[in-house]
Write a structure and sequence with these properties.
Length: 84
């Protein structure tokens, strides 16, 4: 998780991943971080759909909007019936 890291530590982590010659599995909600360190994505899109994508997160978003329209990125939260 990158949300509890200060800016300097996050930068060091980013540099370590970029300089690492192997493969790293990165799980984060930080889109900027994903854009900087990822060259391939394994995206779990819901409904059992898993997609392998070559590129960073921004490129994936652009591709997805082009292919499917902007609707998939709109309000993703589930809505539940209020219990009174």
């Amino acid at each position: 998780p990158t949300n509890d890291l200060d800016v300097n530590t996050l930068r060091l982590l980013e540099e370590a991943i970029l300089n690492f010659s192997g493969c790293a599995l990165v799980i984060s909600h930080d889109r900027f971080f994903l854009d900087r360190v990822c060259t391939h994505l394994l995206v779990f899109e819901g409904e059992g759909v898993v997609r392998w994508f070559t590129g960073n997160y921004r490129e994936y978003e652009d591709w997805r909007i082009k292919e499917l329209g902007s609707k998939p990125f709109e309000n993703r939260r589930r809505k539940y019936k209020r219990l009174n």
